Automatic annotation (TrEMBL):
Name recorded for this polypeptide: Uracil phosphoribosyltransferase
Pfam families: DUF6341 (PF19868)
Keywords: Membrane, Transmembrane, Transmembrane helix
Membrane spanning residue stretches: 6-25, 37-54
Domain of life, source organism: Bacteria
Amino acid sequence: MIANNIFRWIGSLFTDLLFIPFDWFRKGDFNWWSSNTVNWIFLAVLLVLFWYWMKESAKFLREGTEDRA
């Protein structure tokens, strides 16, 4: 019963909260650029995180601590 409640909570989180911007854009009359604003924001966040990850990876590679067991 607890596992069922967890999955119901996750489903409710996505459908009732996280998809609100997409529902708003779906119901409105917007052009392609404004409709995909949320996707562009997600892409920008992912690119920043990828840049940080690669910077840290290069730092560990220079220090020689990468792949140390």
